[in-house]
Structure formats: structure tokens, C-alpha cells
Specification:
By secondary structure, the protein is α+β, with helices and mostly antiparallel strands. The chain has 3 domains: 85 residues, Rossmann fold (3-Layer(aba) Sandwich); 121 residues, D-amino Acid Aminotransferase, Chain A, domain 1; 55 residues, ATP-grasp fold, A domain (Dna Ligase, domain 1), CATH 3.30.1490.20. 33% of the residues lie in helices and 24% in strands. Strands 9, 10, 11, 12, 13 and 14 form a 6-stranded antiparallel beta sheet that branches. The structure holds adenosine-5'-diphosphate and magnesium ion (MG).
């Protein structure tokens, strides 16, 4: 891609959230791939106390590979924007909206994008749906998420989610087919059908090799596939995303959007690189596409 090879790219990864370990894998893969692709690339592991060191590295572009807290929620984006450093992915407001599942659902509703019915968890209230899913508004990797079938578990699951965020969502449990679908620069990739062996796509199912089947044979009809694709693009647009994002969906008659991930996993085995490869886009090409939309003003 013309011009990009003259730029100094700093891959920022790690971070201090619950997804640090995943981010360390994502960042390493991005760094290695860009390096072997002939790019001028440096690695930067973000810790609690070193964010200002990004400035002394004088990057032209930061490749944001920090999942979750501070990397996906608009905080790192805001820092880079103030410093005038171009960065990959969605801007400050868009990241913040997408990362907060409560706010994202407001945007989905406003844009007539189906999402499971929900309300905010309050300690005294009775469950309005059963089964339901209880989750912190701002987390990832299924951390703090519970599928709840009983009133006793309802309270316990609420307390667990509260450990991660004051804002906790209760959603109607959708018994359907789990689909994840990536959007890169507004263009949708092939959907992937996710089948965890345990029945719940939790942290272990996500990151233990062989614990989950990822299938391009989704079993959806052509019309259903088109609907899933259109819905994913609508969700991406509703949140004003930029660059790469991955939309999590449960399909039951129609696609229900759970969330949009604005810093999706980019390890060799992550869903976005897998979908890209399936569609004839190499990892290097994918990362180049992400770098191509990096800018200093993404709001
Ligand atoms: N309303 C729901 N109905 C059915 N399954 C759900 C629902 N919400 C979440 N899940 C399950 O929990 C997983 C994690 O939820 P998600 O909202 O995507 O949060 P995270 O940011 O942790 O990935 C999903 O991949 C899905 O398997
Ligand atoms: Mg998810």
C-alpha cells in the first residue's frame, strides 16, 4: 500500500484490563506480520504507568491492539487524538458507545437494529425475563457474563457482574445460533457460526484450543445470510465505526445484535483474520487495510 511503508508504526498492546493476555497475543501477531511484510514497526506494551512513553517513540501511526478497558473504550483514542498521532480503528465517541453495551443498545434501537430486550439490573428488582443473561455493560471476553435460569442465580449473577461495572444489563436470553461477523472499512466478511462444545461461549470456550467449533457453513439460507450481513453493517454504521470491527449476533428467526467489538482479536486464530483469509484477504493485507484508515481525527 503506497506511502504506508515510509511511516513509523507503533503497535500498542497489552493494557491493564482483563483482556491483557489476549491483547499480548494480538499485538505480537500484528507486530510480527507487519515486520515480515517489510514495515517500519515497533512494539509498545502498554502498562499502568507508561502511556506517556508513546510520545517519545514519535510514531506516525499507532496500531491499536489493546482490547477492553482503556484500549477499546475511547481512552487511548482520546490520548492519541490530543497528541496528534494517527491511530487505527474507531474514534473516541464511537469506541465509547460501542464498548458500553447499554449505550450501544440505545443506538441499535434508534436505528431499528434488533437487539435482545433488556433493562438495567437493580439489586431489589424481580427478574423480568427468564432465562436471561446478566452482563457488565463494559467488559469483554465473556468476563462477568452469566446465563441465568433461576431467581437465586439471578441475584448472584448480578453481584458478579457488579464487580466489573456499576452498570449491569439484564438481557432476554436468545436461544439461537451464535454468529460473529466482521466488517472492515464498511465491507462485510463471511459470517462465522460459533459452536462452543460446553454450550456457553465463555472465556474458556473462547481461548482454549479445540473447545469451540468455528464454521463457515453456518446453515443459514442465502436470504438469512444477507440479512445477517446487512444487520452487521447497520450496527457498524449506527456506532459510526471506522476500520475493523466484529459484530456478535444471535440468530433466531432474525439476527439479534449483542455487541460490536471495535478492537477485535487479531491473533492467527481469531475470528476476524480467519474470516478475512476465507475471503481471500491475507493477514498482512487485513492489517494494511486497517492502517489505511488510520487518522488523527476520527470523531
Ligand atoms: N442475550 C443473549 N442471549 C444468548 N446468549 C447471549 C446473550 N448475551 C450474551 N450471550 C452469550 O454470552 C457471550 C458474551 O456476551 P457478549 O454480549 O458478546 O459480551 P462480551 O463482550 O463478553 O463478548 C456471547 O458470545 C453469547 O454466547
Ligand atoms: Mg462478544
Amino acid at each position: 500500500m503506497a506511502g504506508l511503508k515510509e511511516k513509523k508504526i507503533l503497535v500498542v498492546y497489552g493494557g491493564i484490563g482483563t483482556e491483557r493476555e489476549v491483547s499480548l497475543c494480538t499485538g505480537k501477531n500484528v507486530y510480527d506480520t507487519l515486520k515480515s511484510g517489510g514495515y517500519e514497526v515497533e512494539a509498545f506494551i502498554l502498562n499502568e504507568d507508561n502511556i506517556y512513553e508513546i510520545l517519545s517513540r514519535h510514531p506516525d501511526i499507532c496500531f491499536n491492539a489493546v482490547h477492553g478497558k482503556y484500549g477499546e473504550d475511547g481512552v487511548l483514542q482520546g490520548f492519541l487524538e490530543m497528541a496528534g498521532i494517527a491511530y487505527t480503528g474507531s474514534g473516541v465517541a464511537s469506541s465509547m458507545m460501542a464498548y458500553n453495551k447499554y449505550m450501544a443498545k440505545l443506538a441499535f434501537e434508534k436505528n431499528a437494529i434488533p437487539t435482545p430486550r433488556y433493562y438495567q439490573f437493580g439489586s431489589g428488582g424481580e427478574p423480568q425475563f427468564m432465562p436471561c443473561v446478566i452482563k457488565p455493560a463494559r467488559e469483554g471476553s465473556t468476563v462477568g457474563v452469566s446465563i441465568v435460569h433461576t431467581r437465586a442465580h439471578y441475584k448472584q449473577a448480578g453481584a458478579l457482574a457488579k464487580k466489573y461495572d456499576d452498570c449491569v444489563l439484564v438481557e432476554e436470553y436468545i436461544d439461537g445460533k451464535e454468529i460473529t461477523i466482521s466488517v472492515i472499512n464498511g465491507k462485510v466478511l463471511s459470517p462465522i457460526y460459533i459452536k462452543p462444545h460446553s454450550g456457553f461461549y465463555d472465556y474458556a470456550s473462547k481461548y482454549t484450543a479445540g473447545a469451540t467449533d468455528y464454521l463457515f457453513e453456518t446453515g443459514l439460507s442465502d436470504a438469512e445470510t444477507d440479512l445477517v450481513k446487512a444487520t452487521a453493517v447497520s450496527a457498524y454504521k449506527a456506532l459510526n465505526c471506522l476500520g475493523a470491527a466484529r459484530v456478535d449476533i444471535i440468530f433466531r428467526d432474525i439476527p439479534y445484535v449483542l455487541e460490536v467489538n471495535t478492537v477485535p482479536g487479531l491473533t492467527e486464530t481469531s475470528n476476524l483474520p480467519k474470516a478475512a483469509e476465507h475471503d481471500g484477504i491475507s493477514q498482512l493485507e487485513l492489517f494494511e487495510m486497517m492502517l489505511a484508515t488510520a487518522s488523527t481525527e476520527q470523531n
